[in-house]
Each structure stands twice: as structure tokens, then as C-alpha cells.
Write a structure and sequence with these properties.
The chain has 518 residues and is α+β, with helices and mostly antiparallel strands. It contains 21 helices and 13 strands. Helix 4 runs antiparallel to helix 5.
Length: 518
């Protein structure tokens, strides 16, 4: 089909290939006196979802726990001069609901919200969460030297040459947090030769290793578990039990760790009583000599601060947000006064002054939004945790894990009206302090299963029963996963063996063979 435009010097050729199954596009050609131009038209549809910076920041505020929230507020105060900590005993009203934040790029903004400092409210973040007679103080953390420092201090008490001291310190630097020296002596000799610029023999490094292994704690500097245990046994009084324990570790270590006790009894021709006495000596040993210093480092580097505190007052559960270390915030009054001064002399202001005032207004908007965001975060946390308490009330009253009910994120989302993603962010990395201990919020969410009566039960309840079965089992003949599944079935819980194995692994129990004792 050819159609000529009445007022143009070219013709448009419309080619319709709809009858052809191989051609899916419609083409247009513009025909001129000298050339033909092919024009292709297409229709595309894109779906994009964009979040504003404020929405992204609000999402991040929901995810972070109490300790990080303190740091976030401090950072915001440092970056925004319009935001400040309110003085103590300040009980002004909260931010008005009709206080709308403007975009900040409009110079003709309204100054009414900023003119009167009495209308710039403070937001009390920590609230009246604690009674007057109650005082909660943080547990002071012990401060101790590291394992490496402790070992070097002992070296200085030994009569060592300067070269021996340098090599021993180098060896100590290669010891990991468990107290093991997992590097080969030859590799350490090569590295030390490269660093010092002078060749060092492997034998010199081996001698330095022996020096380090004489230090406390016993077993430090060992290359593996077998050597670590033997180093500790060599320092004990050499009784018949210790001597047998050494022999077992030296020549029957593989059978020992695999708990092939029958083979050990037969190989060494000993009685069960003798074997028990030898095992008792081995059990007293420390498989990780550096664990004591590791725990000190963990205490100094990690502080677990619960986000919620739940108290049982004669059957009444009282929930508090743990905000005692979060400061009260308010908008800086000096910035509001600057806007008030600009408002009174608005006609005779220079362009520079208007730009400065626009900057101040943006900072004020940001400060007021952040205060509102903190308030919204607190309300979301409170409502979410309250919904969890309502569903798991029996557990919070008695502390019995078998009382936990099946609960998923959607259940709490339905109860609160929030989105499932919001509940997920609130429950992530959050903890609640109860009369029975501190629990992560994720602990209360579990899949739903059914017993033989068709009643819904929580997977946590099954894990609790499974844990009790393993705890009470005969250690000479531990329960296999098949037998555990049978026991649970007898109790009314019909569960497959592979599910039992999964729960057992989640509870950090090894297979039956490795739980065997004599």
C-alpha cells in the first residue's frame, strides 16, 4: 500500500506482514527522490519501583538493633547541626502530626512552622520505661591482656639469647586464637628469612617452637589436637591413668576420636574401668588453650543489649523498649531563630542570604524528619513485639519452650497491619530480655506441624522433646535417628527420620556413634 502525504515531497509505504507468521513488526518507509529511509516503531513497557532516600533510611532504622541505634543517632547529630540533644527534664509536646516536610528546593517556603521556638517540639526517645525504684546498670566487662601478650611476658622471664627471643616472638605471632600453631616450621623459616633479610634454618624455628610450648597455658603452640592433648598430659604427674591416656592418644588417636572403644579395649588389653580412668584424665584437658583469652576478647568487643525488656508482674506482662542509652532529640532553636529573622526582613535579602536560609531550612526539615522516623521506629517495634507476646503469652508466663505456638511472619503482619517485610526487618538482630533469659526474636518464629490428633504444634516443641530424649539416653548405646523418630511417634509426633536428623543437627548434637560413651 502506498500513500502520499498531500503537502510533502515523499511517499510513505506501509507494508503489512500480518498474514506472515515469521514477521511480527510493521515497517514504514519514507521514499524520497534520492533514498529510502526505513523507520522502525516499537512499544516497550517498563515497571520500575523507586524508593526515596528517606524511605531507604527508614528501612535501615528498622533493621538496626539498639546498640547500633545509639551510634546512628550520634552520627546524625554530628552531621546535622539542626539536630541536638535536648537538656534533661524537658517535657515539651511531641511533634505535631500536621507538620509537613517540604522538598527543600523551593525557595518560597512557609516559615510559620519555624518562627516560634515553642512550636519546635522535643521528642522524648527513652520515655518513662523504668520505675523510680528500679535501676538497671550494665555489667562491667573485664579487661585482660591478649594471649600473645601473655606469652611474650613469660618469654621475658626466661634466660634466652636475643636471637632466641626474636624467633620465639615470631612464632608467637603465628599462633591463632585457639592457641594452635598451624603453620609448618619450614614455611615460617622462609617467611622469617625474607622479613629479616638473613637466612634462618628450619631447626632454629623448631627450637623456638619448643620454647613456646613450654609456656602457659599448657598445650599452646601445638600443631593439632593430638599434640595439644599430649603436651598437657606430659605436664601431669605420671600416674598409671595418665600413662595409659598418653599411650591411647599416641597410638590409638583415630580410634579414640571415632569412639571405637571396643577396638581400644582389645588392642591395649585393658578393662573398662581402666579405660574410664584414662578417659577421665583426657576429658580434663583443654582442647583450645587460647579459649580463655578468646572469651575475654569477645566480651570486650561484643555487647549484647536487648531491644526489649519484658517483665512479669503477677501475670501481667509489661513490655518496655530498652532506650536508656538513647538521648532525647530536638530541633536546634538557633536555626529556627535564623528563619524567623529572615521572615521579618524578607524583602531586603540578598541572593546569598536566601541560599543560606534555604540550606538552614533543609537541615531543619531533615532534623524533624529524623525525629519523626525515630518515633515511627519505636512504635513499629513496640507494636510488633506486643503482637508476639499476645501469641506466645504462655511461654512468656512459664518459660516452657513446649508452650511455644507455631508462628510465622505473616501471622504477626496480619495482627499488626504491617507488611511481612517490615516484620522481618524488626525481628532481625533484635533481642528481648525475659525472666527466663535473653532470646532473639527469631526464636519465637517456627514452622507449623501436626500431631497424631491433628493439632498444630511448633517445631520448637519437637526440638525440646528431642533434646530431652538425647539428654536422657543411655550413653553406652545412644539413640539413632530412626529410634528417635520412633520415640517421637510414640509421643504423638509423626516425623520422618530425615526431619529428626535436621533438628538434631540444628541442636548441635552429633550422630549416635559420636555420642557414645563407656
Amino acid at each position: 500500500m502506498i500513500k502520499r502525504a498531500p503537502e510533502q515531497h515523499c511517499s510513505y509505504i506501509f507494508l503489512n506482514f500480518r498474514d506472515s507468521p515469521k514477521v511480527k513488526n510493521i515497517f514504514y518507509f519514507c521514499v524520497t527522490d534520492t533514498k529510502i529511509i526505513m523507520l522502525k516503531q516499537s512499544l516497550q513497557q517498563k515497571l520500575q519501583q523507586k524508593l526515596s532516600p528517606q524511605q531507604i533510611q527508614m528501612i535501615k532504622l528498622l533493621e538496626i538493633p539498639a546498640l547500633e541505634m545509639e551510634e546512628k543517632i550520634k552520627q546524625e547529630i554530628e552531621e546535622n547541626p539542626a539536630l541536638e540533644e535536648a537538656p534533661e527534664n524537658n517535657f515539651e509536646d511531641e511533634l505535631p502530626e500536621n507538620d509537613v516536610l517540604n522538598s527543600g528546593d523551593n525557595e518560597d517556603f512557609t516559615l510559620g512552622d519555624y518562627q516560634n521556638e515553642d512550636n519546635i517540639p522535643d521528642y522524648k526517645l527513652n520515655g518513662n520505661n523504668y520505675s523510680d525504684e528500679e535501676k538497671r546498670e550494665g555489667v562491667p566487662l573485664s579487661v585482660g591482656s591478649s594471649l600473645h601478650e601473655y606469652l611474650i611476658e613469660q618469654l621475658r622471664l626466661k634466660m634466652l639469647s636475643e636471637r632466641e627471643m626474636e624467633l620465639a616472638e615470631y612464632v608467637i605471632g603465628n599462633i591463632d586464637q585457639d592457641g594452635y600453631l598451624r603453620r609448618e616450621e619450614e614455611a615460617m623459616a622462609d617467611d622469617y628469612s625474607f622479613l629479616s633479610g638473613q637466612f634462618e634454618e628450619k631447626e632454629a624455628i623448631a627450637h623456638a617452637v619448643k620454647i613456646v610450648q613450654e609456656l602457659e597455658p599448657a598445650g599452646v603452640g601445638a600443631s593439632d589436637l593430638q599434640e595439644c592433648l599430649l603436651l598437657q598430659l606430659k605436664r601431669k604427674m605420671q600416674t598409671p591413668e595418665v600413662h595409659l591416656a598418653k599411650e591411647i592418644l599416641e597410638t590409638g588417636f583415630e580410634d579414640f576420636i571415632r569412639k571405637h572403644y571396643d577396638k581400644i579395649l582389645k588392642r591395649y588389653e585393658i578393662s573398662e574401668e581402666q579405660f574410664k580412668q584414662a578417659i577421665a584424665e583426657i576429658v580434663k584437658l583443654n582442647p583450645k588453650p587460647g579459649s580463655a583469652w578468646e572469651s575475654v576478647l569477645e566480651e570486650n568487643s561484643v555487647r549484647l543489649i536487648p531491644d526489649f525488656i519484658l517483665e512479669n508482674d503477677n501475670g501481667n506482662l509489661n513490655l518496655f523498649l530498652n532506650n536508656k542509652n538513647i538521648p532525647e532529640l530536638r530541633v536546634n532553636r538557633n536555626y529556627a531563630e535564623m528563619l524567623e529573622e529572615y521572615s521579618s526582613n524578607r524583602e531586603n535579602q540578598s541572593r546569598e542570604m536566601r541560599d543560606a536560609v534555604l540550606f538552614v531550612k533543609q537541615k531543619l526539615d531533615s532534623a524533624k524528619w529524623f525525629i519523626n522516623a525515630i518515633k515511627q521506629r519505636q512504635e513499629t517495634l513496640q507494636n510488633t513485639m506486643q503482637a508476639i507476646i499476645e501469641r506466645q503469652k504462655e511461654f512468656f508466663l512459664e518459660g516452657d519452650e513446649t508452650k511455644l505456638k507455631p508462628m510465622i511472619l505473616k501471622d504477626i503482619a496480619d495482627d499488626t497491619g504491617y507488611d511481612v517485610s517490615t516484620i522481618s526487618r524488626v525481628s532481625n538482630s533484635k533481642y528481648v530480655q525475659t525472666d527466663f533469659g535473653v532470646y532473639p526474636l527469631k526464636f519465637f518464629f517456627s514452622e507449623s506441624m501436626q500431631n497424631d490428633r491433628g493439632e498444630e504444634i511448633s517445631a520448637v516443641e519437637i526440638k525440646t522433646i528431642l533434646q530431652e530424649c538425647i539428654r536422657l539416653e543411655n550413653k553406652r548405646s545412644p539413640l539413632t535417628d530412626d529410634r528417635l523418630a520412633e520415640i517421637l511417634k510414640e509421643k504423638g509426633y509423626v516425623i520422618a527420620r530425615r526431619t529428626v536428623a535436621k533438628y538434631r543437627e540444628q541442636l548441635n548434637f552429633p550422630v549416635a556413634r559420636l555420642r557414645k560413651e563407656i
